[in-house]
Structure formats: C-alpha cells, structure tokens
Design brief:
Layout (H helix, E strand, L loop, with lengths): L2 E6 L5 E8 L3 E7 L2 E8 L2 E12 L3 E2 L3 H8 L11 E12 L2 E10 L2 E16 L5 E12 L18 E15 L1
Antiparallel strand pairs: 1-4, 1-11, 2-3, 2-11, 3-6, 4-5, 5-7, 7-8, 8-9, 9-10, 10-11
Length: 175
C-alpha cells in the first residue's frame, strides 16, 4: 500500500497545557508555533508514524514575565533547547479511542510517554482537501524532563506542580 503524508494545518490546531499554581489554582498556556507530519498506509491511522515539534520560544501563558521565565534556563532554556519533539512508537486501540505511545524530548531529555487520542474522522473541505482531526490528552511529570525549577512559599506550599496536563487538538491535510 502506498504511503500517505498528512501535514499539520496550524490554523486549526493547538497545543494547550495546564499546571497547578500554589496547588490552589491552574495556569494555562499554549505553544503558538507547532509543526507535525503524519505518515499513514493509505488513510489508515492505526499504523501511523507521527512526528511533532513545538517552538519553545512561542510559549504563551498570557503573562509576558511568566513566559520569559518559562523560556529561561529555570525551565525550558529556549535558547539552548529551542524545540520540544515527539515521535510516535506505537498506536493502539484503547476503549472508544486510541493510545499513541512515543518518545517526547524536552531539554534534550527523551522519555517514553502515552497520550489518549480521539479520532475526529476525516472530511473533505470546501477546496477539495482531505482533512483529518484528532484530540489528544495526557499528563507528564515536568521534572522527568529536566524542568527542575522549584520554589516553596513561606508557609511551605509548592509554587508549581510537577504534573503538567496537555490538551492537544490537531488537524491535518492530506498532502
């Protein structure tokens, strides 16, 4: 069967994350610049090869000072490690959806991760382009990827949780 390449449609895709702050509220953000390709056999996504990257400098939480802190060596060190990368290793059926396993690289630390995936299906748009949509969710421990900055309040509270939750919506166009 012939290979099919699907290119990310960045206008209809987003990578959002949430992390607890002081363990009493949640801070949300996203990466503004992302790139991805998926290679499939025909239009079968169950054996797909997924490659994804996010430009660390494009992090946006809506607060400039916080974004600059996240770009600094305390967190991502965007200057030295400009990309977050993901490469799939397996896709499997999981309940009503799927699970994608792969290697996530942050700050040159690569670890296996899993995300739950909802396949939104495929559709032909107004211009005759075949599109495919997916929603992914997952959680990582930031410290496992070298994001070690920590602070404790005077009362002994944690400033930033180790757990980071992702909500990712991706739309691809068949090349």
């Amino acid at each position: 069967m012939s290979k099919t390449v699907w290119n990310l449609d960045p206008m209809h895709s987003e990578v959002n994350f949430r992390v607890r702050h002081l363990l009493i509220s949640t801070v949300s953000g996203k990466f503004e610049r992302i790139n991805s390709t998926v290679t499939t056999d025909g239009e079968d996504f169950t054996q797909a090869e997924v490659a994804f990257s996010a430009d660390v400098a494009s992090i946006n939480t809506g607060v400039g000072d916080r974004d600059n802190h996240l770009r600094s060596d305390d967190f991502f060190n965007a200057e030295k490690f400009p990309e977050i990368r993901f490469k799939s290793t397996a896709i499997s059926k999981s309940g009503n959806g799927y699970q994608v396993d792969g290697d996530l690289t942050v700050r040159d630390v690569t670890r296996p991760v899993s995300f739950s995936v909802e396949n939104g299906g495929t559709m032909v748009d107004f211009y005759g382009n075949t599109k495919a949509g997916f929603e992914l969710q997952g959680t990582i421990n930031r410290k496992e990827f070298g994001l070690m900055w920590d602070a404790v309040t005077e009362a002994g509270g944690v400033v930033v949780s180790d757990e980071v939750k992702f909500q990712v919506n991706l739309q691809y166009a068949k090349a």
